[in-house]
Amino acid sequence: MNAVYDVIIVGGGATGAGVARDCALRGIKVLLLERSDISTGATGRNHGLLHSGARYAVTDHESAVECIKENRILRKIAAHCVEETDGLFISLPEDGLEYQTVFVEACRKAGIRADVIDPQEAKRLEPAANPSLIGAVRVPDGAVDPFRLTASNILDAKAHGAEVRTYMEVTELIREQDRIVGVKAYDYHARTEETFYAQVVVNAGGIWGHGIAAKAGITVNMLPAKGALLIFGHRVNNLVLNRCRKPADADILVPGDTISLIGTTSSKVPFEEVDNMIVTPAEVDLLLREGEKLSPILAQTRILRAYAGVRPLVASDDDPSGRTVSRGIVLLDHAQRDGMQGFITITGGKLMTYRLMAEWTTDLICKKIGVKEVCRTAEIPLPGSAESKEEVEKKIRNRPITQRRSSISRHGAMAVEIDSENSLKNSLVCECEEVSVGEVEYAMEHLGVNNLIDLRRRTRVGMGTCQGELCACRAAGLMGKKDPVCARKAKADLASFLNERWKGMAPIAWGDTLRESEYTTWVYQGVCGLSDETTKIAVK
Amino acid sequence: MNIQQNTVSENNFEQCIKCTICTVYCPVAAVNPDYPGPKQAGPDGERLRLKQPGFFDSALKYCLNCKRCEVACPSNVRIGDIIQSARIKYGPRKNTSLRNFVLANTDLVGSLATPFAPVVNSVVALKPVRFMMDKVMAIDHRRVFPKYAHGTFTSWYNKHAAAAQAAFPKQVSYFHGCYVNYNNPQLGKDLIRIMNALGYGVRLLDREKCCGVALISNGLYNQARRQAKINLKSIREAVTDRDLDVITTSSTCTFTLRDEYPHLLELQNDDVRDRIELATRYLYRLIRSGQGNLKFKEGAPLRVAYHTPCHMEKMGWANYSIELLRMIPGVELVVLDSQCCGIAGTYGFKKENYRTSQAVGESLFRQIEESGADVVATDCETCKWQIEMSTSKPCEHPLTILASRLA
Amino acid sequence: MKFDVVIIGGGLAGMVCGIRLAEAGKKCAIVSQGQSAIHFSSGSFDLLGRMPDGTEVSDPIAAMAELGKIAPEHPYAIMGEKFCAEHLQQAPEILRSAGISVSGDCRKNHFRITPMGKMKPTWLTIDGYLTTASSERLPFEKVCIINVEGFLDFYPEFIAEEFRKQGVVCNFGTINLPDLERIRRNPSEMRSVNIARVFDREENLEVLAAKIREMASGCEAVILPAIIGIGRDDAFDVLKSKVNTPLYLLPTLPPSIPGIKAQQALQHRFRSLGGEYFLGDTVLSAEWKDGRVKELFTANHGDIPFRADHFVLATGSFFSKGLVATPDRIVEPVFGADTVFTPDRAEWYTLRFFDRQNYQAFGVRTDRSLRVVKEGVPIENLYCAGAGLAGFHPVQEGCGAGVSLLSALFVADRILKGE
Predict the structure, then answer these.
(1) Chain C contact present for A523, CB below 8 A
(2) Cα distance between residue B2 and residue C1, in whole Å
(3) What ipTM did this prediction achieve?
(4) What is the pTM of this model?
(5) C170 close to B (CB below 8 A)
(6) Do residue C325 and residue A509 have CB atoms under 8 angstroms apart?
(7) C-alpha dihedral, B341 to B345 to B349 to B350, nearest 10°
(8) Strand A30-33 and strand A3-10: pairing?
(9) Which pick of A99, A235, C59, C387 has the fewest CB atoms within 10 Å?
(10) What distance in Å separates residue A400's CA from the closest CA in chain B?
(11) Model confidence over C4-26: pLDDT tens digits?
């Protein structure tokens, strides 16, 4: 039997998740299909910067206004995913102060609070900032955790009736004359193909949306732009640091949970490479060279890993050369644009505006299928964000302090759901990030975790200093406990988890990172005798 | 590219690669499950505290500050320093408990007690008094209190020794510490006798305060810093103005003056650090380099078991004391496995730590009983108290044993 | 301080070298920056498990001859098949003299079982640990795999999954005790060592034995994680005497009890032979004279140097900072010795974790006598032993322990013969 929906969303990034939630809240029967795990594309591969909009104020007034609006909304509805740190735009001697004047003026025009502060005060506020700074502007930047944000949208969507299927890759858009009526999708777990029908199919595939549109014979002119970032071993700064100049490479340092990250580079890449982004030594060097100017301590701080995402830049429809790109939200109604009914593409934009993108998309869906409900995603808090951290903490006082506070920062009010009945549940799986057995079990049961890499996105297992050296096997052990099939899967899964961690470490594997890798090799390949079961399976 | 060439992170805790070796050697984690262990309390916790100071865990107070984690660490992470610094940085600001004040202020209490030593000693030995101290001050009633001397070392020195010592052509400065001053002036006298035999006169510093180790461990950081400044000033006068080396007879005082001042109290001592050393090391160098020689009398065979105090282990200097003891004719030396005795200065006096303290030392006590030694030798006064209280053996400073055998 | 030989590094290579020299009457000192990688031991010592191309080795001695041809820079090739063959008995004897009872045959690898149930070819295994002569057959058909409740560093399900491939029926059992409950109060310290401390107590060992007897019924063997005997050496024997079913240990994730015990045993042996062991100290600089190392200065000992006729660099590889990688080169930090590496960082590794990574074969440049080379010239009285050597892949080739043991003996031999 083939299932019928009002809407099928293709893509489980922040936008797709946001659309799913918005639809579900408006009572629309929705299915979200994601070929991998949620937040695996550009959603999970950016700064995690809660933009105030200041960065765009001078160059893109419209984006700046969108950002500050969404910034205020996210603080309210996604409190547990957001860290209200504020940010500084610092001027270095080489930048001069001319830009500052223009910048502050543009911020004010966009409605962004921008306070010029004394350089001494700036250094006091943020000791990690380059002490040679000659000027600083304080803006309401912050940090937002994209994994939590997406997971929370998914949770709420499901709570309101949405169906979410991960590891389901859309292979075909089913077309009847000039209308898309459904999709065929391959289920990687069951290894079967399934067919789903809907009145509207939403393409929220990010850079992969290019290929999805192509399945309908439609060209969306996208330009894959690679952005590389580096993660440092601990939280170096407490305020977001930006350079007060025209946006350029590696000029944002964002504190996020236990770490800080610097980015990004920007380079065009061919479509064939978007599934396998590798950070090159030249990119690492550039990030370090520029990063050091923002915060000199980075030169002596341990780097945990390097990674890169691909921004889905969209060329304007009226410029076939593809040179004019939009960084703004692009909502394409293919009925109007291409004469193809029942098909919408939502792309462009940024993590910051995911909710607004979802709102526009859902508004268009509603128009198409005749739903009158209005958007409420700007008012209703996401799961986990309804209560303050202090309130939540009162309820779970019995847990060890470091574990308690870590779990609250990851799950907000949902931390209460984590089983901490006894010492067995409180035992730590991941010692760097304080993830307990109870939290791992909670994630496996409630947060749609299929494997260790998913688990990392939900809990930070393996995101700490040791990059999984201590915890990967423990988590695999927990996942493999149920039955022999689980055990076999978990062991293979462990190998792919280690491969995934190493991929991010290799570009910066010197110093302590290389020491850590050698040790990890001894433990997993030596003591445990593990080999790459993923390739073996593939060969057989 | 110049950056990241010196790849060892300046944030020392980041050199931790989570190998877990420190957890094997932590004497507290082995016996007290309320202590998070050196890895969690140290580098792992530090990363969380840098995220947000609210991640400070008050259970860090259970750390003995023995630094055995640091000795074991293959990555050179200053785990003990990280934990103690966190207590200073994030811990409770005011520590007003009377008990901690009394335990921490060794020289204040010492100077009050020594004039009335016979009375004080017998009073604190009384069961009802110990019971009261236990109830009122949470000083464990099972703990045997160190005895106070009747009259301080400094008053004896000033009255009876100063003039004679000044007459020696070669001089050395002596940081005697609270223990010699208030509890065991004899050790100071022994040192003087040995130094004199080598042709050195012993002077005192112009002004000496308690090194502050007990203040640090009891959270009285400002007072510790004040006293450290006074000591550093006196030491600088001795070293810079008079070109004198400063020697001590306590491994913990030495360690505090040399390493805890810069690492925990953030007082730089680079200019004088190398000139502060343990007397046994000073003697070893003099004798081994042929600049001095000690003549011993023939003595009855004596089996001595040497116990390496934690801070001695950290400094790596046990060998000097051991080699000196080996020079004494008739002494048969057994070197005990280096492990913590559990007292850790004032730690073991506290009621809440008594159990931990004795459990930590348990296997050392067993080793001592089984060693067949006549006497235990150690360079730390609090180890001495713990060993004498917890085993059947007497415990002496190596220099006391050495002095007793001088010709 | 004056010694005949000063060894920098207190791991397997440093310690065995020191023991061998001390046995021969040399006054030795070992200076070690911290505890060594023996703390992660699997309970076995590998000699040669696989050839560089990945083929499994059955007879290590025969394979060494082959290795000499295809990998002339391999430490085994440098030391020579003849030396290796002659000294392969000496290595286990040194371990045994220290009280580490090992079994194995250098002409025929046996298989150790890992905490995940994998079988790896190896040379010597500490007695009590499960081994098998053939990777196709286990010495039992029905086994009970026991774990401690809440112990996360041992994986009965993974082990069973492998065992079942050979038709072995696996039962599971878990142990819990009030004293274990006490350790678990601390969320991070449910580690092998702390558990072993619980079973150092006679009464807990008794309860453990009783529970094993109960769970073992109908099984031919019982498997336990290595959580026995940290404070006392006889714990496993006592336990075995109380259980009728054959009892085997399997290693756990770090910290490793067999490793810690081996480390302590070697240290005791070295000290009992008159060796001086300086733990937690870092060599900062060396004084040279006429192309020889004259003395070393360390962080702890300041102006009092370590003098010796010979020096051995046994500081290991990256983990123990015997080698330090910067973004563009590999540095030997103590002497600034020459190192073997490829300058382009992109060639140091592939992006797949399990690949044979080039960086693992980087190391200190030596001559054919394993003397350390600096600025192209071998230093007369400075040798290198152990993991810091270049030209081998300790994990992929399963030869880490063998290289450490044999190079330690090789260097000791050179020093003893050189006089």
Answers:
(1) yes
(2) 39
(3) 0.97
(4) 0.95
(5) no
(6) yes
(7) -110
(8) parallel
(9) C59
(10) 9
(11) 999 999 999 999 999 999 999 99
